[in-house]
Amino acid sequence: MMQIKVLGPGCKNCKTLEKVVMDAVAELKVDANVEKVEDMGKIVEAGVLMTPGLIINGKLKSTGKVPKMDAVKKMIQEEM
Amino acid sequence: MTLMAILQSGINELLEYLSAHVLTCLVPAFFIAGGIAAVVSTGAVLKYFGPRAPKHMSYGVASVSGAILAVCSCTVLPLFAGIHKKGAGLGPAVTFLFSGPAINILAITLTARKMGWELGLARAIGAVTFSIVIGLLMAFIFRKEEAAGNDDGGMFEGEEGKPIGHLLAFFGTLVAILLFGTAAIPFWSKLAIIFALLSFLAVVLTQWYDGEEVKEWLVETWKFVKLIFPILLVGVFVAGVLKIIIPQHWIEVSVGGNSLSANLLASVFGSLMYFSTLTEVPIVKAFLDMGMGKGPALALLLAGPSLSLPNMLVVRSVMGTKRTLVYVLLVVMLSTATGMLFGSIVS
Q1: Domains of chain A, first to last
Q2: Is the pLDDT confidence value at B304 over 60?
């Protein structure tokens, strides 16, 4: 099962990314576990300096912005 | 005092701010903020915060980072944690933490506009200098407890940004538009100069920037307007309400003049109180109108934006209670001192 992590301390951008990711997962009908990481220590440990961060199956795919739906879908497909 | 009178005071304050006088400085400032968000690559700045970066560069870039990086405090915090734990260390991280909210192009512009260029300039210089001094002091005080890590796992690699010349042309023109737009020169000269600057800007954009970047610039500018303008209006209204609710002589007695206690009180109040982006300006202006001294006003402007009770709690979770307390103490002491210095210079 694909492990997707959305990292961010809880502001609007991070919540938006979480929603985009959930929508992308639903549209692609991928079997994925989407986890929201809000703990600052864990966010830094994961190597994310600028939130929101997106990690798929352990690979850092995006930081610092909310990628559009198409970009998120592409990132998911790259890791399938 | 009736409800009507209170509402009236709030509305009057709003009308004061929705004037050409204020808008001619805010509109270009929003475009500048949008430009920074769209065009300045954060990645290009990151490499100055890495563990191997020369310290003077880390402090230098961190002290103006507020102008370069995010407005959202929740983006400041992960970066702060990252710089502290894996990057250049406690000193530059604290410098970054303080300067982030303190040096904000919109806030400085509005401060200068509504409270005089001296206060605007003092705020800008104060914030930059402060942030470096506080960072250095923190690094010194805790020097034995900070172990230097050199493995950053490539987090601070950064990326190539646009050539500095292109960035300077773009931002230089925008800043020139801001300055000329708000200068006290005859209307038609102003119009002609702005027109010339806009034409120059069009040339710069077509030559060195592509369509995507220009669109991104406009999108980011609009995002800022949507995010900040409503909160600013609320802050203005609240400031108007405060003006009529708080007895004037309370303000005069507690923070009038330039005494140590006035500056200290303003400083402590600023450090605890939460100010949303830009709202510190109408509130401090209201206090000034009611008799607050210029020194205490600066103290409030320096301690206010970067600190608040909620913010202190989060910072504590990153650097621990001891360091957080020392940080807060340093901010309060330095704001008080700077306020007193400024107050004595301008009287």
Answers
A1: 2-78 (3.40.30.10)
A2: yes
How confident is the model over B95-109, as a mean pLDDT?
87
* Chain B contact for A13 (CB, 8 A cutoff): yes
Q: How many CB pairs under 8 A join A and B?
A: 51
Q: Which long-range contacts (CB under 8 A, 24 or more apart) does B272-276 make?
A: B272/B307, B272/B308, B272/B309, B273/B304, B273/B308, B273/B309, B274/B308, B274/B309, B274/B310, B274/B311, B275/B235, B275/B304, B275/B305, B275/B308, B276/B231, B276/B235
Residue tagged active-site, from A4, A7, A14, A24:
A14
A63 touches chain B (CB under 8 A): no
Residue B260: the pLDDT is 92
Alpha helices in B40-72 (DSSP H): 42-46, 55-63, 65-68
Q: Which amino acid is at B62?
A: A
User: 């410098």: which residue's tokens?
Assistant: B95
Angle at B48 between CA B79 and CA B328, to 5 degrees: 50
Please give the Cα distance from B331 to B121 (Å, whole number): 19
Query: Can you spell out the DSSP letters for B117-186?
Result: HHHHHHHHHHHHHHHHHHHHHHHHHTTTT-PPP---TTTT-------HHHHHHHHHHHHHHHHHHHSSS-
Digitized pLDDT (tens) for each residue of chain A, 80 residues in all: 889 999 887 777 788 889 999 999 898 888 889 999 888 778 888 878 777 889 998 888 888 778 888 888 888 888 88
Dihedrals phi, psi of B158, to nearest 5 degrees: 75, 180
Which of B274, B278, B298 is closest to B288 using CA atoms?
B298
Q: Cα distance from B192 to chain A (closest Cα, Å)? A: 39
Q: What is the mean pLDDT of chain B?
A: 86
Supply the pTM of this predicted model: 0.81
Residues of B with CB under 8 A from a CB of A: 42-43, 46, 70, 72, 74-75, 77-79, 81-82, 85-86, 153, 155-156, 314, 317-318
- Is the predicted pLDDT of residue B71 greater than 70, yes or no? no
Residue among B302, B293, B310 at smallest CA distance from B344: B293
CA B90, B305, A11, B314 dihedral sign is: positive
